[in-house]
Design brief:
alpha/beta; Hect, E3 ligase catalytic domain fold; 4-stranded parallel sheet; 3-stranded antiparallel sheet; 17 helices; 11 strands; 13% strand; extended
């Protein structure tokens, strides 16, 4: 009978379990939450020292360090955490442990943490080991103990969340805004007290409310705001006009439908806010409906029939898959193939394009003309701006007294406001006559020349909306 030992070379081993007999190698992972940053007992240095001391006592070689920063453990999508997992996967069979200070440093996802720890053990031969909560996960009892720790970490996390939400709800109920402040406000601390105050942008936004109350359209308001250094877009302005925070009220999901008085300084009065929103309600939808544009016929409406002078429409012959322009006048048989029409239009654009050899001398001449025209107006412009600043300050003072603080009567406001407004209008008019308002004329001239030298290329490469604008600018 053959001795069974002769077959030893055919025996199979579990490569992962075999690693247990090798030298222990580990990666270290440390993290803190924002609150724990100030807690000396959970600082990054404290965690790291405890991990290194434990590794030295147990003859574990640490090959890499991960974390070392703030990362929330509510999810396992953390950058450093994921970097650590990728490192383990790339070095499969070379790492035996993940060393952490406590198991909640590794994860607070409960069942997700249990599943991940199991995958690391079974697939990569890596044990998650907390130096302050030592468990032997090589046996079912140790795995159970570790899983219980993970579940309690998630439970503790949910309790913290519940307490935090309750605290936020209480603050909102007391009129204290406990979230990010909207545009126009800053959070400041004075003598240990947290205050929400109106900043310089907020004072300019107050003007937007007043302009709207006076009947100005949103596009004109946006233009004025940009002119005084406040970039704005339509949807943003609409949200500002609809946000009761600006009239001293709080509206937040945590208030569950209630609107209450806030403790912050209001930007405008509640009466003004309601008046503006009544204007919005009467005007209907805030958006502007647009007809669908067809990329195949970008020159429709812009191009006109040579006989009727009516704008062209576009259509497709479905059987051939060919697009055409046609005159909108009934009975007019002016039809043009899109391909031929576009070729002729590109040839026309090329006639307006600046030739390469003329670019440099044209730029020099344009810059010189600009300097000559504006040389005498700069000093006068500075004087007008100084006068305008004085008038703006006066207007801002009476607006705040009347619209916000209710310290001024309507009769007094009506007496002074038209006078100051007329002075502002006159000065603004004089300023507009002094120059074009271009802050960097050299850059503007360069951009204009570049566009003028590449009209055909720019039109060909543009999308449908830009093609229409390019056509209008080029031929106008």
């Amino acid at each position: 009978m053959t001795n069974i030992s002769s077959f030893a070379r055919f025996g199979k081993t579990n490569n992962i379990n075999a690693n247990q007999n090798q030298i222990k190698t580990a990666v270290a992972y440390t993290r803190v939450s924002s609150k724990e940053q100030a807690d000396k007992k959970l600082s990054l240095d404290f965690q790291l020292k405890a991990i290194q001391d434990n590794a030295a006592r147990n003859n574990i070689a640490i090959t890499q360090y991960f974390g070392g920063t703030y990362e929330s453990a509510k999810t396992d999508g953390r950058k450093e955490f994921q970097r650590m997992l990728e490192y383990i996967k790339k070095n499969k069979g070379k790492i035996t442990h993940i060393l952490v200070y406590t198991l909640d440093r590794f994860s607070r996802t409960g069942g997700g943490a249990i599943k991940l720890a199991q995958e690391l053990r079974e697939k990569y031969g890596v044990e998650v080991y907390a130096v302050t909560q030592p468990t032997d996960t090589s046996n079912p009892s140790g795995v159970l103990q570790q899983s219980i720790h993970f579940i309690f970490s998630q439970y503790d996390n949910e309790l913290r969340k519940q307490r935090a939400v309750a605290g936020l709800k209480e603050k909102f109920a007391q009129g204290v805004w406990a979230a990010r402040v909207p545009m126009g406000y800053d959070i400041v601390k004075s003598n240990g007290e947290r205050k929400i105050v109106v900043n310089a942008v907020g004072k300019k936004l107050r003007k937007a409310f007043i302009w709207k109350y006076e009947g100005m359209k949103n596009e004109a308001i946006i233009g004025r705001l940009k002119a005084i250094g406040v970039p704005m877009y339509k949807q943003q302005l609409t949200k500002i006009f609809k946000n009761p925070f600006y009239c001293g009220l709080l509206s937040h999901g945590m208030l569950e439908g209630r609107v209450i008085e806030g403790k912050h300084k209001k930007l405008v009065s509640q009466e003004l806010f309601l008046s503006i929103n009544e204007i919005h309600a009467k005007s209907g939808n805030y958006g502007v409906p647009h007809k669908k544009e067809m990329a195949e016929v970008p020159l429709k409406v812009f191009a006109r029939c040579s006989e009727c002078n009516q704008p062209f429409a576009g259509y497709i012959v479905k059987a051939k898959g060919l697009w055409y322009y046609k005159c909108r006048t009934k009975g007019c048989k002016c039809n043009r193939s899109v391909k031929d029409f576009h070729d002729k239009f590109l040839a026309l654009l090329n006639q307006y394009s600046i030739k390469e050899e003329f670019i440099a001398p044209l730029r020099t001449k344009m810059e010189q003309v600009w300097r000559d025209i504006n040389a005498a107006s700069y000093e006068l412009e500075a004087a007008y701006k100084k006068q305008l600043a004085v008038i703006e300050a006066k207007i801002e003072n009476i607006e705040e007294s009347y619209y916000v603080n209710k310290e001024m009567t309507k009769e007094t406001f009506d007496k002074f406001y038209p006078k100051y407004a007329n002075e502002r209008s006159e000065i603004t008019k004089k300023l507009s006559q002094l120059g074009s308002g271009i802050s960097n004329p050299e850059e503007a001239i360069g951009k204009a020349i570049r566009l003028s030298s590449e009209l055909a290329t720019m039109w060909t490469c543009s999308d449908i909306s830009k093609k229409g604008k390019t056509a209008k600018i080029s031929i106008s």
